[in-house]
Amino acid sequence: MSETTNTNEEKKKPPLNGRRALPSNNSNDEENEVPEMEAFGLIPRGFNPKDYLHVVDVHMFKEPHEINKQQHHTDKYYSPKLIVRRGQPFQIQIDFNRPYKPETDQFWLEYLIGRYPQQNKGTYIPILVGDVLKPGKWGAKITHKENNSIRLSIMSSATCIIGKFRLYVAVWTPFGILRTHRNLTTDTYILFNPWCQQDAVYLDDEKEREEYVLNDVGIVFHGNINDIKLRSWSYGQFEENILDACLFLMDKAELELSGRGNPVKICRVASAVINSRDDNGVIAGSWDNMYTYGVAPSAWTGSVDILLEYYSSKQPVRYGQCWVFAGVFNTFLRCLGIPARLVTNYSSAHDNNANLQLDFFLDDEGQLDTKLTKDSVWNYHCWNEAWMTRPDLPVGFGGWQVVDGTPQETSDGMYRCGPASVQAIKHGHVCFPFDAPFIYAEVNSDIVYSRRERNGTQVIVKIDTTHIGQLIVTKEVGGDGMMEITEEYKFQEGSEEERLALETAVMYGVKKQTTQDTVYQPQRDVDMEFQVQKAVLGSDFKVTITFRNKSRNYYTATTYLSGNIVFYTGVIKNEFKKHSFSAKLEPSSSSTFDVVIKSSEYLSDLLDQASFHFFVTARINETGKILATQKATVLEIPTLRIKTQGEMVAGKEMSVTVEFTNPLKQTLENVTLRLEGPGVLRTMKKEFRQIPMNSTLTWEVKCIPKWPGLRKLIASLNCDALRHVYGELNVQIQKP
């Protein structure tokens, strides 16, 4: 009998390994039992705890309009509990059963986090009451005494763990320690503090703090370099349960609680847990245009639905692509108090062997050899920047750090990327952790076109050094415009500094293939370029190819145009247009040639971002030299119209209407509409079976806005034939 009870006991205890006395403490959710009476020995008969100082109540001043949330910039969080930022004092009030006498009474506060609190790990924090508060160190002092109550000002450490702490008040008696019982209403969330100079995420500009920490909507720039498109994204970091969901992500990533005061560690583990590869993280990526059993990436309007679904189901949410990973990552960072922004790199290299060179192989006809070509150019790629000091790196590499939750390549065996210092990438110091060489290649690779001759030798026909990372942008501070940050990542193209940074990167082990072994002698006296006419989805358009013959020779060029439908990642789905012609090039003159693309040629195969990729190659027959160039283009996609009716006042019902007209020459089937707006309405969804061609759909929604101020409504429409249809509207909600 005794043996069986013994094994049961062992089952309850967590398994220990030989290396540590306590199991790892990596869940903010689990708790330990804290004794309400901790006796020093035998308790004499007649001992009555009521004879001693006894806590009747603890007031946290945790309402949005009260002092703590106002001073700590946490009044927007939709949570009944106290939320404060580290390294800055906050107030609580304790009511005792009688007036507090400092000469004889002794009490202290205890903050605990996790299941195995330990003082040296920062997970058990006893705070004695003193006379002064030291900046950035734990402490408490009495600011006010009245009747049986005292008011305390409490300072948290500027390096304190980020998470949800439990609070106990302990009173000393000669026979033992008396504690308050477990009280959920006194739980305190402690977050990063960009307003505090001692905090690793301190940001000194108030406008930037308002944008990068407190703004709950943002803009995603997409499309391509020649046709920049933008859409809004609702971060919703203050919405109900989002803070708990973000803390859960750190539990999911099994980050030790003692490491959760360090923004570098938090970013590193979060970049892995945002995607579902190898750890069952938040979002499952899908780039194949098949989104059965899930939501198409283009249908999401914000992060809240994704995080809440993951928090409740604990299973990856389907599906995401780069801007979805980046949008959710941004919510996570801003919610915890790390300044963050979403960044788009146009013509982003996905260089799968990190040799700073994207290899495009042409066959002997001059057509792209898709079997040999493994690298790809993404029309755009979104990642995040998070603001923090880097005490682990030499001075000068703090500030913005690249973090990327999109699973592209593994880092230390997992799909994650960053944090990597933007400054280190610019100067080519790619030896510093984490993943700088991969990001350096994303913004700096060359495109090398080579052709296999009939005798089997590879001949380089063209090197394009300016195509990659042409434009890197983010949303401007305090507005919806675009701010270019290309020069944060790279020096002026062709400058001396740029060469130097490249040589530094090569020295630090970024592989750069030399092109000596392959003969490269381009045709210098003929230029070729092409333009794609701007076109609306569903219409015909033309591609114009221009040759400039700068020589005195008469040339003929066998020209080949290949039109491909591509994923925005530059991966080709299929070739929908092939067109060859012979061009006669007169000496010292320009000639143009038009190729018409009909909507019937592309509509049946179009992918969700309406992206095309055109390759034009021309062989100068007289010299045998090849000219090659490529360009991505995006069709104009129709938008949704959003209108409001009547007055818009916080706490009063208002009406929102979404309208859409079907521009295609076909009926749209199984259409889903989504509408959301942080502080105005939770995400609403509606399905429509059919929208006939040229007909208009109208959807009216009633809602009650919570907060006054400028708010944004964001809508999306999604069906198999048409994706990436968005609409948005700024609304001014009045005070009641």
Description:
With 736 residues, the chain is mainly beta. It folds into 4 domains: 37-191, Immunoglobulins (Immunoglobulin-like), CATH 2.60.40.10; 207-508, Coagulation Factor XIII, Chain A, domain 2 (Alpha-Beta Complex), CATH 3.90.260; 526-634, Immunoglobulin-like (Sandwich); 641-733, Immunoglobulin-like, CATH 2.60.40.10. Helices cover 14% and strands 40% of the residues. The protein has 12 helices and 40 strands. Strand 12 and strand 13 form a beta hairpin. The longest helix has 15 residues, at 322-336. The relative contact order is 0.09. Residues 1-14 have low confidence and may be disordered. Its cofactor is Ca(2+). Residues 1-33 are annotated as: Disordered. This is Coagulation factor XIII A chain.
- The class by helix and strand makeup works out as mainly beta
For CATH, the homologous superfamily of the largest domain is named as Transglutaminase-like
CATH fold-level label of the largest domain: Coagulation Factor XIII, Chain A, domain 2
Oligomeric form: single chain
CA radius of gyration is: 31 Å
Can you summarize this structure?
The chain has 736 residues and is mainly β.
Characteristics:
metal ion binding; protein-glutamine gamma-glutamyltransferase activity; Immunoglobulin-like; 40 strands; 12 helices; mainly beta; eleven-stranded mixed beta sheet; elongated; Coagulation Factor XIII, Chain A, domain 2; 14% helix; 736 residues
